[in-house]
Amino acid sequence: MQLLAVNFHYFRENKTGRGIFPLTLKEFENQIERISKFYDFVSENDIIENLKNGKKISKNSCLLTFDDGLKEQMSVANLLLKKGIPGMFYVSSEPIKNNTVLDVHKLHFIRSILSEKELYNILCKEHELDTYSFNQTLLKNQYRYDNDLGRKIKYFMNFVLSDKDRKQTINYLFKELVSSEEEFAKDLYMSFSDLKKLSKNSMLGTHAKNHIPLGSLSEQEIEHEIKDSISDLNAIIGENKIRSISYPYGGITAVTDKVANIAEKSGLDFGLTMWRGINDLNDLDNKFLLKRIDTNDAPGGKLNSSEYILKEIIN
């Protein structure tokens, strides 16, 4: 069995061309139709049954995943339910529970308004970004779809700045652009009823509590991020149904063996990284470090790549 996991984020009909890069619903429909020519779509439960009991699912399988718990993803959830296609929505609990906006989404919004040059200059002035020595290989691996300036901004904000400095900078810029964080959060994220609908259809998982790189935290902090998110979501949906995790960011600096071990000890069944590739039976032995690819790389994606069209099917 080979398992391809494909990840999606934003879905909007209008595109600004910077900061936020959504798919339209029609583009998504076209892509899953393309994927279906090479893979059978599987559910979270299909994967768990395969891992636990050796119950083999389709030789060439695909799990559709959606990170962050964005309200706009519910249109996709409804489409999948209508078509009878399984999928998993991985939700960070803090913004939905308390009507706050995650730093990652504040930064996405800021970048959709300010040009990269404007934001770069602000970071150079306030935090001397221009003096930091970047590892270009790491940058390209973490942010494959951004240009050089965008990669530096995102990596510097997410992994270099201290938590205090990052929050101060992001919050200052966000408050300059948004009058009410609470109302912005209500519009951006799923509601309690959305989560209950996803849970009812076995489509809900955790994306940790605050969407921060877990690999940079202490063991105790990682445990709180994962376990608190599970508790938050279970309290909202009224039952214990959170069984898998998609790690925030998901790259090699965000997901370590320590993170995977704590996820396993938290009572989950598997975990998804953003390490690119297809999972085969050997990968499934390490079920808390499953590989996943972005929509752009998948069949029918923006890059129009054939990398994940399996050779035996092409022939």
What is the count of distinct domains?
A: 2
How would you classify the helix and strand content by structural class? alpha/beta
Instruction: Return Rg in Å.
Output: 19 Å
Low-confidence stretches: none
**Level-1 CATH class name of the largest domain:** Alpha Beta
Distance between the termini: 18 Å
Mean pLDDT: 92
Biggest sheet architecture: 6 strands, parallel
Oligomer: single chain
Structure, described:
With 315 residues, the chain is an alpha/beta fold. It contains 14 helices and eight strands. The strands form two sheets. Strands 1, 2, 3, 4, 5 and 8 form a six-stranded parallel sheet that branches. A two-stranded parallel sheet has the order 6-7. It is globular. The mean pLDDT is 92.
What is the fold's blueprint, element by element?
Elements: E1 2-8, H1 25-35, E2 40-41, H2 44-53, E3 60-68, H3 74-83, E4 88-91, H4 93-98, H5 103-113, H6 116-127, H7 136-142, H8 148-160, H9 163-177, H10 181-188, H11 192-200, E5 204-206, H12 219-237, E6 244-246, H13 257-265, E7 270-272, E8 293-294, H14 311-314
Parallel strand pairs: 1-3, 1-8, 2-3, 3-4, 4-5, 6-7
